[in-house]
Amino acid sequence: MPSLSRLELQHFRSYRKASLQVEANRVIFVGANGAGKSNLLEAVELLGSLRSHRTSNDADLIRLGATCGWIHGWIGTDGLEHIGLYLRQRGGRQGWRNQQPLSRQMDLLGSFRCVCFSSLDLALVRGEPVLRRQWLDRVVLQLEPTYGELLSRYNRLLRQRSSLLRRHGEASPRHHLTALLDAYDQQMANLGARLHRRRQRALLRLDPLARSWQKRLSGEQEILSLLYHPGTELPPGLDVDQGNRDLVAWQEALRQQLAHQRQVELRLGTCRIGPQRDEVMLQLDGQ
């Protein structure tokens, strides 16, 4: 996987302009509080994952008084590939690759691998399940950039279906509503099963690594386990690395459960089945 060899910032956080040449495998930033060390690392995180662990508002990323900001990166030891992320004060980003605008910023994903660690990561253990789902999604995005498109499509369907459920409340489903919900259920089952499979596959690959490092750090005294609890009752014994046959079984299971829960969901106005209900469990010595 190519690495970042050069970074340039314009009107990003505290920087009016900055340039960094990465010439070693390990780089340590040293400086006084408020010097901008975290801002440099945040820029790398944003360019590599399109996310910041500190804010979800792009306006916070742009230097005070500026209307826009830039993050430029050069990839590989030769630095021949140039990527960029253009930030606007009023929202809306634009990804660039080799001086050409991209139709989707998500096409930047996979340019180089980026993993962020911070004190805020304690929330993975103590926080709500949504934080662990978001962490796992970021991991899968690094491994499979196409996952971002699947997740975006599923979340859009989820919002539309939830809005439909709330509008109709407890009213008995009429024929056109039943047909519409059937169509939503089929699409959500198709996408949801693919999300389930990718999340579980990533966690199965991470679990032995986490287990090995925890044993090493604890002097062989502790066993860490990462467990995936899907928000859908998936058929047992299916292989996440197999092809379409097992995927179809997962899709059908999700579709049937959505149909079975329909009356309850109409009454509550929310979707109770699917990847948005997933949980990632971190267990130490089985607890």
TrEMBL record:
GO biological process, one term: DNA synthesis involved in DNA repair
Annotated ranges, domain RecF/RecN/SMC N-terminal: 4-63
InterPro entries the UniProt entry points to: DNA-binding_RecF, DNA-binding_RecF_CS, P-loop_NTPase, RecF/RecN/SMC_N, RecF_2
GO MF entries: ATP binding; single-stranded DNA binding
PROSITE patterns in the record: RECF_1
Keywords, sorted A to Z: ATP-binding, Cytoplasm, DNA replication, DNA-binding, Nucleotide-binding
Compartments it resides in: Cytoplasm
GO cellular component: cytoplasm
Family affiliation: Belongs to the RecF family.
NCBIfam families given in the database record: recf
Protein name: DNA replication and repair protein RecF
